[in-house]
Amino acid sequence: MLGFLKEPVVVTAKINVSLVALTVLGLISRLWGLCYPRAVVFDEVYYGQFVSLYMKRIFFVDDSGPPFGHMLLALGGYLGGFDGNFLWNRIGAEYSMNVPVWSLRLLPALAGALCVPLAYQILVELHFSHCAAIGAALLILLENSLITQSRFMLLESILIFFILLAVLSYLKFYNLQKHRAFSGSWWFWLLLTGVACSCAVGVKYMGLFTYMLLLATAGLHFWHMIGDQNLSNVSLLCHFLARGLALIIIPMGLYLSFFYVHLALLYRSGPHDQIMTSAFQASLEGGLARITQGQPLEVAYGSQITLRNVLGKPVQCWLHSHTNTYPIRYENGRGSSHQQQVTCYPFKDVNNWWIVKDPGMQQLVVSNPPRPVRHGHIVQLVHGITTRYLNTHDVAAPLSPHSQEVSCYIDYNISMPAQNLWRVEIVNRESDTDVWKTILSEVRFVHVNTSAVLKASGLSGASLPEWGYRQLEVVGEKLSKGYHQSMVWNVEEHRYGKSQEQKEREVELHSPTQMDISKNLSFMAKFTELQWKILTLKNEDTEHKYSSSALDWITMDTNIAYWLHPTSGAQIHLLGNVATWASANAAALAYLCLSLWYLLRRRRKIDDIPEDAWQLWMSAGGICGGGWAVNYLPFFLMEKTLFLYHYLPAVTFQILLIPVVLQHLSDHLCRSVLLKSMFSALLVAWFSWVYFVYCTFSPLSYGQPALSPSELRALRWKDTWNILIRKQ
């Protein structure tokens, strides 16, 4: 029974020494001196703010992309014991002792280091030689721009890691397809492809480019499978469902999970939640939730309410009035109604309160039981403090003469009757009998007499002059001119009015609400709103000193100064390895020219290379050349401020194309021993050049040692590079 113990238990393992050595070199190149400089470097000033907000559980919105990358950076801070207390206000600021610099920079550095062995394995899975794979890894290892970008609290190295992991996983899955379909390893690599793609998209939306490339590649491979007569219909269906599950369903679910964790972590109110809807704000701890918690859910006749414009940008504002009137004549000579001003005010104020009145009754309190207002009901809106009715008429608005003036009606005993009836239209209703609900309902107010819609026009234009206290204009906009979020309002604060007398009502309007009904959004409702804000929220794109165009990237006519030592000449720049970038451009051009030549020759039934070599050439080009194209060309269509680091994913794929082209030239164009020897000598000289450039620019990649002004001038290889030289 115990006979197996008579022999020793032996475990054997194959270790790829080259792969291990490349991994170690990658770790050394990215982790060496990681805490230097102990100061804020370039966009660390941007991402560090989000890390601090994660540590304090304060909600934020970043329009640059999804939250997964930010959470990974915050994980580094959490593991290092960061409490979030640091003022991220300027580049170059010295980190205080409570900031775990090494931990915050660790995950980007690890991701950058692991890109080296990933490059090696991708070339192996593309069926290129061991030498070509090592060459690809060494080029990534010695790429100055990738070193710089991976050594700080930035997201590009993490993005590139997941992109390369997705490509490698798909290649491994595809290579297992023919002989080991539906095996454990087949499923593992297929699922890992989907997970890596989702993670790449979750870090930055640039990950979508590679995701789309892999989906197209998978679709093309499946199309070829359909023509395989050896596969049954059932087998094809299983393959299709497996790919759909792993490459679409699971990535979508994982993408949702990033937001779920993000929202679960950030449950406290903060400055960023002001751009969200009132319902979203009320779901956060503190802030609006402290005001709105327990308000009545259904708006009734007699309700006292504040109305917030749904657009919420560039600032949030509430429907507002005050005792001042419109001037009899404006600066341009046009006349007004001289009625009481109605504006949209960006601050909470007692003059933001309105009372919902039944036009057929005089009372301004809620009856018992309350009579709820429904979609389509006609109401009057009475300003709580001045008791004047919201009104509009055929008089031009002060700043928007094509729209109607909105006012609170004053009876001057002239031929201008009150027109103060408004129809409530619930935009997000489920049926035509829906009740108007606090926070949740988005409503439009349509003027009964003129069909104009109440609109906060000042959100897209200038504010009122001094006579309007620089508040935002409110107008009546004709329905025929279309709909916009500036025409939609929601009830934010709400109480059931109890006081019929005006003095008692004013005291009531100044007092806080205390009711017992809470409103919580579902996760999907919060996700949908947050996702929409991320996609549509746009900061003002201003010209940056180091911004560039996509055309500047190919020839590296630009650089970015990341950090400058306050006293010495030590500095860090985002600059690529000139030799590698030039070689990558040459490789891309050579690949394109050779491919066109081969296609023309094959059209004439002339095969210059064997069929298997042709398939290898095309598949490698599809991954490496295609990866460069999909990660580069879309930037020509983008209207945003661009920087050199946006090109790093594309140039990574382009670098992988170099050994592909070099091996092809060696195998198929250098056919004599002499040519092969000469080609090998050229390769050694070329790689020595790459290494020389890496060493030359290392002080600008690592920030040390400090260079003298003359040494810095010698590194300005292009006039367009902005190398910082202190005046003596």
TrEMBL record:
CDD domains: beta-trefoil_MIR_POMT1
Pathway(s) it belongs to: Protein modification; protein glycosylation
Metal-binding found in the keyword field: no
UniProt keywords, alphabetically: Endoplasmic reticulum, Glycosyltransferase, Membrane, Repeat, Transferase, Transmembrane, Transmembrane helix
InterPro entries found in the cross-reference section: ArnT-like_N, MIR_dom_sf, MIR_motif, PMT-like, PMT_4TMC
The MIR domain, residue ranges: 296-359, 370-427
Membrane topology, from the record: Multi-pass membrane protein
Entry GO MF terms: dolichyl-phosphate-mannose-protein mannosyltransferase activity
Domain of life (superkingdom): Eukaryota
Stated family: Belongs to the glycosyltransferase 39 family.
Name of the protein this chain belongs to: Protein O-mannosyl-transferase 1
Source organism (scientific name): Pomatorhinus ruficollis (streak-breasted scimitar babbler)
